[in-house]
């Protein structure tokens, strides 16, 4: 069986040429990421980059009032800590574990050193940053212009793309914090999806029963983000020695880290 916690379960690590990966591998440290763990606070110095394997991390903007809204999600397709190789050491948001699991972390100095080599890793990271920017921008537009149930569909689909199953452990209160809406709005939206037979929600667990139904109901924001990840990042096919086999709905396509194809 494929080990779900192997480093190359992360798409970025899996996409690296063998020589590049072997240079990083001795420095990758396996860490458990429990639900709610804060990887960094707004303005805090980033000391590690995290490559999730089976966890999801939410990037949240926290207002002065304490209210928050999710600006992006990161799972096995990416990494947490892009500021480490884009020229800064801090971010104005908070990184919180949304779905418990595991990741591999790399010390900040090592990531900077490898990114500065301007090789395959550097090109891959730049593509990932572009995809992340697009996700952030589309999330802002979605939160401004689309209904809560459409936002919930988008959030569920983005989360499913980063998990192996169809179940999420998440309370309505946490979802409301992610979407930046009132809990009552999430309750109403989740009720609509449940009555339509798309999800089952019970005791903090959401099971997606009809993914095509969610995709038919979601706004344009989800497919925009999905297409850009497909265009920019390599497809997560099975790697020799313990990679991940993409499900049929996997959103990441045949991006070429050597510069071709977009």
**CATH architecture term:** Sandwich
CATH superfamily membership, which one?
Jelly Rolls
CATH topology: Jelly Rolls
Proportion in helices: 25-40%
Largest sheet report: 4 strands, antiparallel
Approximate strand percentage: 15-25%
The structure class reads alpha+beta
CATH class: Mainly Beta
Distance between the termini: 34 Å
The tally of strands reads 10
Strand order of the largest sheet: 2-6-4-5
> How many helical stretches?
10
Tell the overall outline: globular
GO molecular function: DNA binding; DNA-binding transcription factor activity; kinase activity
Pfam families: HTH_Crp_2
InterPro entries: cNMP-bd_dom (IPR000595), cNMP-bd_dom_sf (IPR018490), Env_Response_Regulators (IPR050397), HTH_CRP (IPR012318), RmlC-like_jellyroll (IPR014710), WH-like_DNA-bd_sf (IPR036388), WH_DNA-bd_sf (IPR036390)
Keywords: DNA-binding, Kinase, Transcription, Transcription regulation, Transferase
Provide an overview of this structure.
- The protein is of the alpha+beta class and 262 residues long.
- The protein has one domain (7-232): Sandwich (Jelly Rolls), CATH 2.60.120.
- The chain contains 10 helices and 10 strands.
- It has helices at 11-15, 18-24, 83-86, 108-115, 120-145, 148-160, 172-179, 183-195, 211-217, 221-232, and strands at residues 29-33, 38-40, 48-52, 56-62, 68-74, 94-99, 101-107, 167-169, 199-202, 205-208.
- The protein has a 4-stranded antiparallel sheet with strand order 2-6-4-5. It has a 3-stranded antiparallel sheet with strand order 1-7-3.
- The longest helix is centred in the middle third of the chain and has 26 residues, at 120-145.
- Mean pLDDT is 83; it is low at 237-262.
């Amino acid at each position: 069986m494929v080990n779900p916690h192997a480093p190359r379960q992360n798409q970025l690590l899996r996409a690296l040429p063998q020589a590049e990966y072997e240079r990083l591998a001795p420095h990758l440290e396996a860490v458990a990421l429990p639900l709610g763990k804060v990887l960094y606070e707004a303005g805090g110095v980033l000391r590690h980059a995290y490559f999730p394997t089976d966890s999801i991390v939410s990037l949240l903007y926290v207002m002065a009032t304490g209210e928050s809204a999710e600006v992006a999600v990161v799972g096995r397709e990416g990494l947490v800590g892009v500021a480490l190789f884009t020229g800064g050491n801090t971010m104005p948001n908070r990184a919180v574990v949304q779905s418990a699991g595991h990741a591999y972390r790399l010390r900040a100095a090592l990531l900077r050193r490898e990114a500065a080599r301007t090789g395959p890793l550097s090109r891959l990271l730049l593509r990932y940053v572009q995809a992340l920017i697009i996700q952030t921008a589309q999330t802002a537009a979605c939160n401004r212009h689309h209904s809560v149930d459409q936002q919930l569909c988008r959030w569920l689909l983005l989360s499913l793309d980063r998990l192996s199953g169809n179940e999420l452990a998440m309370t309505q209160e946490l979802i409301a914090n992610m979407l930046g809406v009132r809990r009552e709005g999430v309750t109403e939206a989740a009720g609509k999806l449940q009555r339509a037979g798309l999800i089952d929600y019970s005791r903090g667990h959401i099971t997606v029963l009809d993914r095509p139904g969610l995709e038919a109901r979601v706004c344009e924001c989800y497919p925009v983000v999905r297409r850009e990840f497909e265009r920019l990042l390599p497809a997560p096919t099975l790697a020799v020695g313990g990679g991940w086999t993409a499900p049929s709905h996997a959103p990441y396509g045949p991006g070429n880290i050597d510069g071709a194809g977009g």
